[in-house]
Amino acid sequence: MTALPLVFDAPKRGLPPRHLADLTAAERAAAVAELGEKPFRAKQLSNHYFSRLTVNPEEMTDIPAASREKLVGDLMPTLLTEIKALACDDGTTRKTLWRAHDGTLLESVLMRYPDRATLCISSQAGCGMACPFCATGQGGLDRNLSTAEIVDQVRSAAAVMRDGQMPGGPGRLSNIVFMGMGEPLANYKRVVAAVRRITDPSPEGLGIGQRSVTVSTVGLAPAIRKLADEKMQVRLAVSLHTPDDELRDTLVPVNERWSVDEVLSAARYYADTSGRRVSIEYALIRDVNDQPWRAELLAKRLRQHLGQLVHVNVIPLNPTPGSKWDASPKPVEREFVRLVNAGGVACTVRDTRGQEIAAACGQLAAEN
Fold first, then answer.
1. What range does the domain containing 286 cover?
2. Residue 146 assigned ligand-binding role
């Protein structure tokens, strides 16, 4: 068996200079003091970034011009530059390609629904998990994103919603899912810090509730347990994709390190510790993992490990150009969902969006 092409902590090359969003409230005050400014300037900066959602120094009129230039220059360096924004679904899905300071490309997708607005964000540029049906996984890992690069995707989308730049008029960004480029738990420290910035009350953070944040993983079992011990209320989503180790070793190579049983045991620990139901992500692939017996086995194993503390999201595969992988036919999908539900586990099909704008994570960056 070949060695696993996995990278769990990317080298720090290319990480941007420190940013306000990298720092805790106490660290911001200390950083401001180091620049010779009064510590209360840190709260003013935080209010502009996290509450007013601005990085434009000209709008920070409560700070003297000379101090403003120094503070913004040192603590609010430009992190992400929008390269391209594509819209579909009558404008309610918007995918943005960002370029970081070192040329690194990453993506985020904003989806507006009648009752919510959800942003799918990236935690790494590329991914080292090497899942063969995933555009990002096939491109490999470039580097981890900094805490602030993760948070800035959210700040930018929150401003888009507030300013009514999507159909439906001004609104509020309500949900965050770490399901873009990268394996969040392979960038553990920065992702946890980003979750805290996203969920801390304004003006210390963006004020989005922890229960409205979902962190996805392909199954890094020790990191799942570590995340549980953070005692946060974020939802955990596990990209399982098949209930049997033999196939999962191929679809999700990290399975060679942590088996299905180990992953589901860690997920149960997370559910018990957080009191939150775990989501199981299952990309349905034609003639690969869509057989009736796999649906029945999935229900059996989830019921054994997680009882009622689980919900399965079946995801119609969004195939990448030239890929041998394709979505299962709708009748097969319906039967798969029926069998999982019949096995005593709640199962639904996730709403899919953005196929015409290459919204499967990694596609737009690969094209550019």
1. 80-367
2. no
